[in-house]
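Board notes (copied after class):
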Amino acid sequence: MARAHEAGALHSPGSSATAIVPSWLTPPADVNELLPQLWSQTVERGDAGGLRVGGVDVAELAATYGTPLYVVDELDFRSRAVAWRDAFADAFADLCGGADVYYASKAFTATGVTRWIAQDGLHLDTSSAGELELGLRGGVLPGRIALHGNNKSRGEIAAALAAGVGRIVLDSLQEVDLVADVAAELGVVAPVMLRITVGVEAHTHSYIATAHEDQKFGLSLTSGQAMATVARVLARPELHLLGLHSHIGSQIFDMGGFEVSARRLLGLHRTIEREHGVELAEVDLGGGYGIAYTSEHQPLPPAEIAGRLAEIVARECLVQGIAVPRVSVEPGRAIAGPAGFTLYEVGVTKDVALDGGATRRYVSVDGGMSDNIRTALYDADYSATVASRASQAPGVLSRVVGKHCESGDVVVKDEFLPGDTGAGDLLAVPGTGAYCRSMASNYNQLPRPAVVSVRDGSAKVLVRRETPTDLLALDAG
């Protein structure tokens, strides 16, 4: 049995030269090529071979804002948001008058981002008082905001109700009385939905699969917990039950799980309406649609996802004999993820001999797991390219690593980078617009990077770079 190694299974004793390259990764004919599915729509190579985004050279961004740097293509972000909004509005227009698209604050949020969301007519999903405040500051109408979470505090619930959010998604039986009591104190009726665990095992990493039974989210459909919670909600006049919610996971490409989830959720919807004599106006089918992090990923376009979900909902409602409720979805990373990339500066490089005669090049950058924890946390795959210039050197199998004191501080596990990649080069990692800045840390006391948005030849700061002074300001010693 091979022992696990902190830096990945490919370092386990017994690895051979033929086993170190993933099956989906092939040596590129051109190390300068940019695969369209990996990059935001305005990224291109300029005349000198360096990357440009939104009409701005990345070397200029690095010189002005430093590295590591999160770069958001505003045109791409907003185009994706509008594409999701319009696709679901069109697909569900004849079924239930349209559908609502909720942008996931947890993917990445800032006041500038929530302003885009408000201007482009999307709804907003929040799971903390901080995310709620950013939504309100950006101008999102309170009625378009949802509050999620498996352990909401009394303060978060009070803030949401005082603001007048459109829904609070209840995650447990205990939350029913908590939300009802806070609503009573404020003299309001709380609009609520119930998050149902539908028992669908999503084909994704276990840490981001969220609808199987053995995990922290939701109310079990199979154990009777969901129906008991429905009865409790209906017994509290301070609550108004809007409908049901389900979320089966993240980074999902197979629509089969959504079909099973919708069938079970709408079946429960029918049972509640008939047994309790109430009308449920809404159903939220969640999200978690995958994006392309590497060449192996082929995500479906929003219009196809919306069309297939509309067919599923129409068919299941017909079978159940119920009216089609208002539908909402939560695309999550599908909006923010492809719209952003992270820009690093290369430092040390070294070649490491592996068992079987193979060699892997380690390319160290000035960031790492503090600005992108997903590789270490989820075993996520990413791609990379030299961003400051073009190269004529052949590709060399490389691993992009950070500067932290951890063997598992890996940013990109496997990529063919030019053989002349070296100190001072800028390296860009695409697909980092979601769950990188929002999960960033100060490990090893590194300040978190800035986030800049770029459009039409100019850049602006969405979130400024932290400084050592910021970190020391919290130190009471």
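Comment from the instructor: The mean pLDDT is 92. DSSP finds 13 helices and 21 strands in the chain.
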